[in-house]
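User: Quick sanity check before I run a bigger batch. Here is a single chain. Can you write out its predicted 3D structure?
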Amino acid sequence: MQAFGYRQPLPLSDPNAIVAFEAPAPVPGPHDLLVRVAAVSVNPVDVKQRANAAPAAGTTRILGFDASGVVEAVGAEVTLFQPGDEVFYAGSIARPGSNAELQAVDARIVGPKPRRLSHAEAAALPLTAITAWELLFDRLGVARDTAATGTLLVVGGAGGVGSILIQLARQLTGLTVIATASRPETRDWCLALGAHHVVDHRGGLEAAVKAAGFEQVDLVAGLTATDQHWPAICALVAPQGKVGLIDDPKTVDPTLLKRKSASLHWEFMFARSLWGTADMIEQHRLLTEVARLVDGGTLRTTLTEPIGPLGVETLKRAHALVESGTMRGKAVLTVG
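Assistant: Done. Predicted structure follows.
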Protein backbone atom coordinates (compact mmCIF):
# COMPACT_ATOMS: atom_id res chain seq x y z
CA MET A 1 0.00 0.00 0.00
CA GLN A 2 1.08 3.61 -0.43
CA ALA A 3 2.00 5.48 2.74
CA PHE A 4 3.57 8.79 3.74
CA GLY A 5 6.06 9.27 6.52
CA TYR A 6 9.57 10.30 7.52
CA ARG A 7 12.93 8.64 8.21
CA GLN A 8 14.51 11.30 10.40
CA PRO A 9 13.42 14.61 11.94
CA LEU A 10 13.91 17.30 9.31
CA PRO A 11 12.58 20.81 8.63
CA LEU A 12 9.85 21.04 5.99
CA SER A 13 12.30 22.83 3.70
CA ASP A 14 14.26 19.56 3.35
CA PRO A 15 13.12 17.45 0.35
CA ASN A 16 13.09 14.35 2.59
CA ALA A 17 11.05 15.84 5.43
CA ILE A 18 8.05 13.80 4.24
CA VAL A 19 8.36 10.90 1.81
CA ALA A 20 6.00 8.59 -0.06
CA PHE A 21 6.80 4.88 0.12
CA GLU A 22 5.33 1.41 -0.25
CA ALA A 23 4.48 -0.36 2.99
CA PRO A 24 3.00 -3.80 3.64
CA ALA A 25 -0.72 -3.80 4.39
CA PRO A 26 -1.26 -4.07 8.16
CA VAL A 27 -2.67 -7.28 9.63
CA PRO A 28 -5.34 -6.56 12.26
CA GLY A 29 -4.85 -8.03 15.72
CA PRO A 30 -7.65 -9.57 17.83
CA HIS A 31 -9.04 -6.19 18.97
CA ASP A 32 -8.31 -4.33 15.71
CA LEU A 33 -10.18 -2.98 12.75
CA LEU A 34 -8.54 -2.83 9.35
CA VAL A 35 -9.72 0.50 7.94
CA ARG A 36 -9.49 1.80 4.38
CA VAL A 37 -8.67 5.43 5.08
CA ALA A 38 -10.78 8.04 3.27
CA ALA A 39 -9.59 11.28 4.88
CA VAL A 40 -7.07 12.48 7.47
CA SER A 41 -6.37 15.71 9.32
CA VAL A 42 -3.13 17.20 10.61
CA ASN A 43 -2.64 18.13 14.26
CA PRO A 44 0.19 19.78 16.23
CA VAL A 45 1.21 16.31 17.46
CA ASP A 46 1.83 15.25 13.84
CA VAL A 47 4.18 18.20 13.40
CA LYS A 48 5.95 17.63 16.73
CA GLN A 49 6.49 13.95 15.94
CA ARG A 50 7.88 14.65 12.47
CA ALA A 51 10.20 17.39 13.73
CA ASN A 52 11.47 15.78 16.93
CA ALA A 53 10.92 12.01 17.23
CA ALA A 54 13.44 9.91 15.31
CA PRO A 55 12.08 6.58 14.00
CA ALA A 56 14.02 3.40 14.71
CA ALA A 57 17.16 3.19 12.60
CA GLY A 58 16.47 2.09 9.05
CA THR A 59 12.69 2.48 9.31
CA THR A 60 10.13 4.91 7.95
CA ARG A 61 7.47 6.08 10.39
CA ILE A 62 3.99 6.52 8.90
CA LEU A 63 2.65 9.91 9.93
CA GLY A 64 -0.85 10.84 11.04
CA PHE A 65 -3.47 10.24 13.73
CA ASP A 66 -6.93 11.53 12.82
CA ALA A 67 -8.78 9.50 10.21
CA SER A 68 -12.18 8.67 8.80
CA GLY A 69 -12.75 5.60 6.65
CA VAL A 70 -14.49 2.30 6.05
CA VAL A 71 -13.89 -0.97 7.92
CA GLU A 72 -12.49 -3.70 5.64
CA ALA A 73 -11.90 -6.44 8.21
CA VAL A 74 -12.19 -7.02 11.95
CA GLY A 75 -10.13 -8.95 14.49
CA ALA A 76 -11.36 -12.12 16.16
CA GLU A 77 -12.45 -10.37 19.38
CA VAL A 78 -14.13 -7.31 17.81
CA THR A 79 -17.86 -6.96 18.46
CA LEU A 80 -18.36 -3.21 18.03
CA PHE A 81 -18.02 -3.00 14.23
CA GLN A 82 -18.25 -5.06 11.07
CA PRO A 83 -16.90 -4.71 7.52
CA GLY A 84 -18.56 -1.87 5.65
CA ASP A 85 -19.04 0.35 8.71
CA GLU A 86 -17.94 3.97 8.40
CA VAL A 87 -15.75 5.03 11.34
CA PHE A 88 -13.61 7.86 12.66
CA TYR A 89 -10.80 7.81 15.23
CA ALA A 90 -7.53 9.36 16.40
CA GLY A 91 -5.34 6.25 16.55
CA SER A 92 -2.44 5.57 18.88
CA ILE A 93 0.91 7.29 19.24
CA ALA A 94 2.51 3.84 19.65
CA ARG A 95 1.33 2.45 16.26
CA PRO A 96 1.79 3.32 12.57
CA GLY A 97 -0.19 6.38 11.56
CA SER A 98 -3.16 7.19 9.35
CA ASN A 99 -1.35 8.72 6.37
CA ALA A 100 -1.76 5.52 4.35
CA GLU A 101 -4.32 3.63 2.32
CA LEU A 102 -4.96 1.12 5.13
CA GLN A 103 -4.58 1.29 8.90
CA ALA A 104 -5.03 -1.16 11.77
CA VAL A 105 -6.57 0.48 14.83
CA ASP A 106 -7.95 -0.84 18.12
CA ALA A 107 -11.75 -0.89 17.90
CA ARG A 108 -12.02 0.31 21.51
CA ILE A 109 -10.81 3.80 20.52
CA VAL A 110 -12.94 4.07 17.35
CA GLY A 111 -16.36 5.63 16.92
CA PRO A 112 -19.06 5.42 14.22
CA LYS A 113 -18.62 8.28 11.74
CA PRO A 114 -21.30 10.98 12.06
CA ARG A 115 -23.84 10.20 9.35
CA ARG A 116 -24.39 13.81 8.34
CA LEU A 117 -20.69 14.48 7.68
CA SER A 118 -18.45 13.60 4.77
CA HIS A 119 -15.28 11.67 5.55
CA ALA A 120 -13.29 14.91 5.24
CA GLU A 121 -15.57 16.73 7.69
CA ALA A 122 -15.44 13.80 10.11
CA ALA A 123 -11.64 13.46 9.96
CA ALA A 124 -11.29 16.96 11.45
CA LEU A 125 -12.87 15.89 14.73
CA PRO A 126 -11.57 12.81 16.61
CA LEU A 127 -8.30 13.88 18.25
CA THR A 128 -9.51 17.33 19.18
CA ALA A 129 -12.93 16.09 20.32
CA ILE A 130 -11.38 13.46 22.58
CA THR A 131 -8.88 15.97 23.97
CA ALA A 132 -11.49 18.66 24.61
CA TRP A 133 -14.01 16.22 26.10
CA GLU A 134 -11.50 14.57 28.44
CA LEU A 135 -10.05 17.94 29.47
CA LEU A 136 -13.43 19.48 30.26
CA PHE A 137 -15.32 16.59 31.81
CA ASP A 138 -12.61 14.23 33.09
CA ARG A 139 -9.68 16.46 34.08
CA LEU A 140 -11.45 19.70 35.08
CA GLY A 141 -14.42 17.74 36.44
CA VAL A 142 -17.17 19.86 34.89
CA ALA A 143 -20.63 18.28 35.05
CA ARG A 144 -22.34 17.69 31.73
CA ASP A 145 -25.25 19.82 32.83
CA THR A 146 -26.45 23.22 31.63
CA ALA A 147 -26.90 24.12 35.28
CA ALA A 148 -23.13 23.73 35.81
CA THR A 149 -22.18 27.39 36.13
CA GLY A 150 -18.85 29.18 36.45
CA THR A 151 -16.28 30.71 34.14
CA LEU A 152 -13.96 28.92 31.71
CA LEU A 153 -11.00 30.66 30.07
CA VAL A 154 -9.89 28.93 26.86
CA VAL A 155 -6.37 30.05 25.92
CA GLY A 156 -6.11 29.43 22.18
CA GLY A 157 -9.79 29.33 21.31
CA ALA A 158 -9.51 29.20 17.53
CA GLY A 159 -7.24 26.14 17.26
CA GLY A 160 -8.43 22.60 16.77
CA VAL A 161 -8.98 21.72 20.43
CA GLY A 162 -10.30 25.16 21.30
CA SER A 163 -12.81 24.98 18.46
CA ILE A 164 -14.38 21.86 19.99
CA LEU A 165 -13.93 22.88 23.63
CA ILE A 166 -15.89 26.10 23.10
CA GLN A 167 -18.75 24.14 21.55
CA LEU A 168 -18.82 21.51 24.30
CA ALA A 169 -18.75 24.07 27.08
CA ARG A 170 -21.41 26.27 25.50
CA GLN A 171 -23.76 23.48 24.40
CA LEU A 172 -23.45 20.97 27.24
CA THR A 173 -22.75 23.14 30.33
CA GLY A 174 -23.79 26.47 31.80
CA LEU A 175 -20.25 27.84 31.91
CA THR A 176 -19.48 31.34 30.73
CA VAL A 177 -16.84 30.83 28.03
CA ILE A 178 -14.03 33.36 27.56
CA ALA A 179 -11.75 32.55 24.62
CA THR A 180 -8.53 34.15 23.45
CA ALA A 181 -7.98 35.08 19.79
CA SER A 182 -5.79 37.75 18.25
CA ARG A 183 -7.12 38.30 14.70
CA PRO A 184 -10.54 39.41 13.43
CA GLU A 185 -11.15 36.09 11.64
CA THR A 186 -10.23 34.00 14.69
CA ARG A 187 -12.30 36.24 16.97
CA ASP A 188 -15.32 35.81 14.70
CA TRP A 189 -14.72 32.05 14.58
CA CYS A 190 -14.72 31.74 18.38
CA LEU A 191 -17.90 33.80 18.65
CA ALA A 192 -19.60 31.70 15.96
CA LEU A 193 -18.71 28.54 17.92
CA GLY A 194 -20.38 29.91 21.04
CA ALA A 195 -17.83 31.85 23.10
CA HIS A 196 -19.53 34.47 25.25
CA HIS A 197 -16.44 36.71 25.22
CA VAL A 198 -13.28 36.80 23.11
CA VAL A 199 -10.18 38.64 24.33
CA ASP A 200 -6.91 39.52 22.60
CA HIS A 201 -3.99 38.21 24.64
CA ARG A 202 -1.34 40.20 22.73
CA GLY A 203 -1.44 43.10 25.18
CA GLY A 204 -1.25 40.74 28.14
CA LEU A 205 -3.65 37.92 29.01
CA GLU A 206 -4.40 39.05 32.56
CA ALA A 207 -5.19 42.61 31.51
CA ALA A 208 -7.36 41.44 28.60
CA VAL A 209 -9.50 39.15 30.77
CA LYS A 210 -9.93 41.80 33.45
CA ALA A 211 -10.85 44.38 30.80
CA ALA A 212 -13.63 42.02 29.71
CA GLY A 213 -15.05 42.23 33.24
CA PHE A 214 -13.54 39.15 34.92
CA GLU A 215 -11.20 39.60 37.87
CA GLN A 216 -10.77 35.83 38.09
CA VAL A 217 -11.99 32.64 36.42
CA ASP A 218 -12.95 29.28 37.88
CA LEU A 219 -11.35 27.13 35.21
CA VAL A 220 -8.53 27.61 32.71
CA ALA A 221 -7.86 25.45 29.65
CA GLY A 222 -4.31 26.24 28.55
CA LEU A 223 -4.09 24.95 24.99
CA THR A 224 -1.10 26.84 23.63
CA ALA A 225 1.85 29.07 24.65
CA THR A 226 1.58 28.10 28.32
CA ASP A 227 5.22 29.16 28.88
CA GLN A 228 4.22 32.67 27.87
CA HIS A 229 0.91 32.82 29.72
CA TRP A 230 1.64 30.86 32.92
CA PRO A 231 2.03 33.82 35.33
CA ALA A 232 -1.21 35.34 34.00
CA ILE A 233 -3.03 32.01 34.26
CA CYS A 234 -1.97 31.64 37.89
CA ALA A 235 -3.03 35.22 38.63
CA LEU A 236 -6.44 34.77 36.99
CA VAL A 237 -7.50 31.36 38.31
CA ALA A 238 -9.81 31.65 41.30
CA PRO A 239 -9.05 30.19 44.74
CA GLN A 240 -9.76 26.45 44.57
CA GLY A 241 -9.97 26.74 40.80
CA LYS A 242 -8.56 24.30 38.26
CA VAL A 243 -6.07 24.61 35.42
CA GLY A 244 -5.85 22.06 32.60
CA LEU A 245 -2.97 21.98 30.09
CA ILE A 246 -2.38 20.11 26.83
CA ASP A 247 0.80 21.65 25.42
CA ASP A 248 4.44 21.09 26.40
CA PRO A 249 5.64 24.04 28.49
CA LYS A 250 9.24 23.82 29.62
CA THR A 251 8.97 26.21 32.55
CA VAL A 252 5.82 25.85 34.65
CA ASP A 253 6.12 26.56 38.37
CA PRO A 254 3.16 24.79 40.03
CA THR A 255 3.92 26.48 43.36
CA LEU A 256 2.30 29.63 41.96
CA LEU A 257 -1.01 27.82 42.46
CA LYS A 258 -0.36 26.83 46.09
CA ARG A 259 -1.71 29.90 47.88
CA LYS A 260 -4.98 29.49 46.03
CA SER A 261 -5.25 25.72 46.59
CA ALA A 262 -5.74 25.60 42.83
CA SER A 263 -5.08 22.33 41.02
CA LEU A 264 -3.12 21.53 37.86
CA HIS A 265 -4.26 18.80 35.45
CA TRP A 266 -2.65 17.35 32.33
CA GLU A 267 -4.63 16.00 29.39
CA PHE A 268 -2.96 13.59 26.94
CA MET A 269 -5.56 11.85 24.82
CA PHE A 270 -3.17 9.04 23.85
CA ALA A 271 -2.72 7.92 27.48
CA ARG A 272 -5.43 5.25 27.36
CA SER A 273 -4.17 3.60 24.16
CA LEU A 274 -0.49 4.03 25.05
CA TRP A 275 -0.84 2.29 28.42
CA GLY A 276 -3.67 -0.08 27.49
CA THR A 277 -5.78 1.12 30.39
CA ALA A 278 -8.77 -0.90 31.51
CA ASP A 279 -11.09 1.90 30.41
CA MET A 280 -9.91 2.23 26.79
CA ILE A 281 -13.50 1.62 25.71
CA GLU A 282 -14.38 5.08 27.06
CA GLN A 283 -12.93 6.65 23.92
CA HIS A 284 -15.26 4.54 21.78
CA ARG A 285 -18.18 5.70 23.91
CA LEU A 286 -16.97 9.30 23.78
CA LEU A 287 -16.70 9.33 19.97
CA THR A 288 -20.07 7.60 19.68
CA GLU A 289 -21.60 10.42 21.72
CA VAL A 290 -19.77 13.06 19.66
CA ALA A 291 -21.20 11.49 16.50
CA ARG A 292 -24.68 11.59 18.03
CA LEU A 293 -24.27 15.24 18.95
CA VAL A 294 -23.03 16.10 15.45
CA ASP A 295 -25.92 14.25 13.81
CA GLY A 296 -28.32 16.05 16.13
CA GLY A 297 -26.93 19.46 15.19
CA THR A 298 -25.40 20.23 18.60
CA LEU A 299 -21.77 20.10 17.42
CA ARG A 300 -20.28 21.08 14.07
CA THR A 301 -17.19 20.05 12.16
CA THR A 302 -14.12 22.25 12.54
CA LEU A 303 -12.80 21.66 9.01
CA THR A 304 -11.58 25.01 7.66
CA GLU A 305 -8.72 24.06 5.33
CA PRO A 306 -9.53 21.35 2.74
CA ILE A 307 -6.01 20.81 1.39
CA GLY A 308 -6.76 18.26 -1.34
CA PRO A 309 -5.65 14.67 -2.01
CA LEU A 310 -3.03 13.17 0.32
CA GLY A 311 0.46 13.51 -1.13
CA VAL A 312 3.93 14.70 -0.21
CA GLU A 313 3.36 18.30 -1.23
CA THR A 314 -0.15 18.57 0.22
CA LEU A 315 1.04 17.06 3.50
CA LYS A 316 3.88 19.56 3.63
CA ARG A 317 1.38 22.35 3.02
CA ALA A 318 -0.82 21.11 5.89
CA HIS A 319 2.17 20.72 8.23
CA ALA A 320 3.32 24.25 7.35
CA LEU A 321 -0.12 25.63 8.21
CA VAL A 322 -0.05 23.94 11.61
CA GLU A 323 3.56 25.01 12.22
CA SER A 324 2.59 28.63 11.53
CA GLY A 325 0.58 28.75 14.76
CA THR A 326 -2.19 30.66 13.00
CA MET A 327 -4.56 27.78 12.18
CA ARG A 328 -8.28 28.33 12.59
CA GLY A 329 -9.94 24.94 12.98
CA LYS A 330 -8.44 21.98 11.12
CA ALA A 331 -6.63 21.13 7.87
CA VAL A 332 -7.87 17.94 6.15
CA LEU A 333 -6.67 15.80 3.22
CA THR A 334 -8.57 13.12 1.31
CA VAL A 335 -7.18 9.67 0.53
CA GLY A 336 -7.70 7.64 -2.63
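The chain has two domains: 2-125+271-334, 128-266.

User: Great, the batch can go ahead then.
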